[in-house]
Amino acid sequence: MNVAIVGGGLAGAALAWRLSRRGVRVTVFTGGSSRWADATGASGGLVRGFEPDPAAAAAATESLAEFRRDPVLRSWAGYQELTSTYVLAPDDDTDRTEAAVRVVDGLLPGSARIRPAAGLPFRGLPAGALAVVERHAGYISPARLRSSLLTDAVEAGSELCHVPVTGARPDPAVVLAGGEVRRCDALVLAVGPWTPRLLDQWGLPGQRLRTKQIQYTLGRAAPPGLGAFVDDTSGLYGRPVSAGLFLLGLPSDRWQIDPADVAADPALARRVTIRAAERLGLGAWPGAGARTVASLDCYPAGRGGLRLRGAMPGCPVFTFTGGSGGAAKTALFAARRAAAELVGQSAARRGA
Ligand SMILES: Cc1cc2nc3c(=O)[nH]c(=O)nc-3n(C[C@H](O)[C@H](O)[C@H](O)COP(=O)(O)OP(=O)(O)OC[C@H]3O[C@@H](n4cnc5c(N)ncnc54)[C@H](O)[C@@H]3O)c2cc1C
Known about the structure:
Elements: E1 2-6, H1 10-21, E2 25-29, H2 39-42, E3 46-47, H3 54-69, H4 71-77, E4 80-87, H5 94-107, E5 112-116, E6 130-139, H6 142-155, E7 159-161, E8 165-169, E9 173-176, E10 181-183, E11 186-189, H7 195-201, E12 209-220, E13 228-231, E14 237-242, E15 245-249, H8 266-280, E16 291-300, E17 307-310, E18 317-321, H9 331-351
Residues 6-12, 29-31, 34-35, 38-40, 42-46, 142, 164-165, 190-194, 198, 214, 293, 295-297, 321, 323, 325-329 line the site of flavin-adenine dinucleotide.
Domain FAD dependent oxidoreductase: 3-339
GO molecular function: oxidoreductase activity
InterPro entries: FAD-dep_OxRdtase (IPR006076), FAD/NAD-bd_sf (IPR036188)
């Protein structure tokens, strides 16, 4: 089996690595020199098991548990352990939260528990707010992990091609700048926030995928006693970065931005400053030398996150995207599932 993967972000790299470990011949088309200006390069790298949706918690916890048990992956990703605090929205469904915590507990026993948010270092939380506190969360460098996964895939026989891809054909094949056509047995478009634009340009069905801006600021602060956190009552999220620096962000409302047009939103950065003062008492945020990072991720219309989706009815052409702003934490699991699906579908086609 010979698989072409267009896109060398974390999604494409993790899938190439999984497939190469199964003995599949893979060519990764990285798109050339702009390949690092992507979601993977900008990612905040927060990894935790808990998500309010139990299915998303399963994908995130599987990935986190794999980092924790595999020292090689841990060092490739630069994994650092931190506690994670997830303050739940007041209207959160308690049964669903408990189910998600059980999922985390199944793979990382004793890591997650639900507790009153009172007593945690947040100000002005709604009365009775609850939080899920996880001992074994942390952060990784998605860009570093991507590089190591690609290097290992190449050592196992995969090929990297840096010539830009200008089209996808149902045979299946990729069309390279200059007109060269590369045939394959299955073609996967792992092009993250470029997916809606490329599906449109290449005459493929739209798949109800949209891009959304994600933005955070690196500022000078050290909120005492706070590791990684998400506060669903205000939208604020963050983590320590290195001595004296902290990452803080709020969800943006910028949808359907083209990757060529992404730019930091100053109004959103100001809202982070206001929330940082309200919730964390950080009156001097973000301080001297602050830097705001803005990029995009690809979101599916429904739930589902990063997964393989058929792009051309009846043809082995797929997208592998839908990170929804959180695929660094699910990529290992999602790539394992996608590799198994590709290998299984190929075996079924040969048997038919
Ligand atoms: C600012 C930000 C912060 C984030 N923080 C977190 C976090 O804290 N925790 C977490 O779990 N997740 C986080 N995420 C989400 C996570 O980083 C992304 O879901 C993940 O990196 C997406 O990877 P990808 O490979 O799908 O996309 P990308 O990394 O964008 O990769 C797509 C690749 O396709 C390439 N490409 C485009 N067109 C072509 C072409 N024609 N030919 C060949 N290649 C092409 C691009 O150059 C790019 O390299 C964050 C995302 C952003 C943007």
